[in-house]
Design a protein that fits this description.
The chain contains eleven helices and eleven strands. It has 286 residues and is of the alpha/beta class. The chain has two domains: 14-155, Rossmann fold, CATH 3.40.50.620; 166-285, HUPs (Rossmann fold). Strands 1, 2, 3, 4, 5, 6, 7, 8, 9, 10 and 11 form an eleven-stranded mixed sheet that branches. The longest helix is centred in the N-terminal third of the chain and has 28 residues, at 67-94. The protein is globular and about 55 Å long.
Length: 286
């Protein structure tokens, strides 16, 4: 008697979702719903870190607050973070996902440090991305990528349900792109349609592996793709955004921060541009 076939996502055994409460009127958190539905699809364990950003501490910009006022805000944010964690645990129980939650109250540096440390202990991390709280979101994503050695899925607002039927693999021939594509193999194997998209100048692609040469490697892993070389046009990030819409992609897989974050900060970068404005979740590896 043959054993049942394994799910393509069987390699995903634990998923971490990180979110930080900064204010009492924060908009809905997409990462928790996305991470929960992903864990359900993969039959994986879910961990939710719902941290509150404590105002107390040595933050110079808080000079206008007195101690009593800071403590009151801290208590309110702690309670909100706990309620988010409890709601996530309840939603997970309803759909049969084993879920662990924590709701620590942390100062700004500790928010990103704790999340990056936790990310090392999970197969992947799901985080919010977008214009809301962008500095903290971006730093959390960067630290998780650079310090955990694990991939991150950055979820834009409104994308609170996991889907990966149609995937774009952004390919520039770099080591980061190769790492991302291989980290994403469970998702690629489960997808219905995959497009390897190269958006590079001739000078940039000269020493890199073309997408057409990378495709056979994916095929040997059971992943059939089409390769699409696109002109740079208005920029790599804008071209990828447009192609994601044309392809009706559910997910974009890409290597993150080919250049250092400091260089991207001063000169601009594809990763930061897409994190600021992308129509679909980004699967990122570094």
């Amino acid at each position: 008697m043959s054993s049942p076939s394994r799910s393509p996502l069987a390699g995903i055994r634990d998923v971490l979702v990180g979110t930080t409460v900064e204010g009492e009127f924060d908009p809905p958190i997409a990462a928790i719903g996305y991470g929960l539905t992903l864990a359900k699809a993969a039959n994986a364990h879910l961990t939710v870190q719902s941290a509150s950003w404590r105002l107390t501490g040595d933050d110079a910009w808080l000079g206008e607050f007195d101690y009593v006022g800071e403590a009151l805000v801290d208590r309110r944010l702690d309670a909100l973070a706990r309620s988010i964690a409890e709601r996530a645990a309840g939603d997970a129980a309803q759909v049969g996902v084993v879920c662990t939650t924590e709701a620590p109250g942390l100062t700004y540096p500790d928010v990103v440090t704790r999340l990056a440390t936790q990310a090392r202990l999970h197969d992947l991390t799901v985080l919010d991305a977008g214009p809301r709280r962008f500095d903290l979101d971006r730093e959390t994503i960067e630290r998780a990528l650079f310090e955990s050695g694990r991939p991150v899925i950055a979820v834009p607002p409104g994308r609170d349900a996991f889907a990966a039927r149609r995937i774009i693999v952004a390919w520039d021939g770099s080591a980061q792109a190769a790492r991302a594509a291989n980290d994403a193999l469970p998702f690629l194997r489960a997808a219905e349609a995959i497009e390897v998209v190269s958006v590079c100048d001739d000078a940039e692609i000269h020493e890199a592996v073309p997408g057409a040469e990378f495709a056979p490697h994916l095929a040997r892993h059971g992943v059939n793709v089409v390769v699409n070389d696109l002109p740079k046009g208005d920029g790599i990030a804008e071209t990828l955004r447009s192609q994601a819409g044309l392809f009706r992609a559910d997910l974009v897989v890409m290597g993150a921060y080919r250049h250092s974050p400091k260089r991207e900060f001063f000169l601009g970068g594809v990763t930061r541009s897409l994190l600021r404005n992308c129509p679909v979740p980004l699967f990122l590896s570094h």
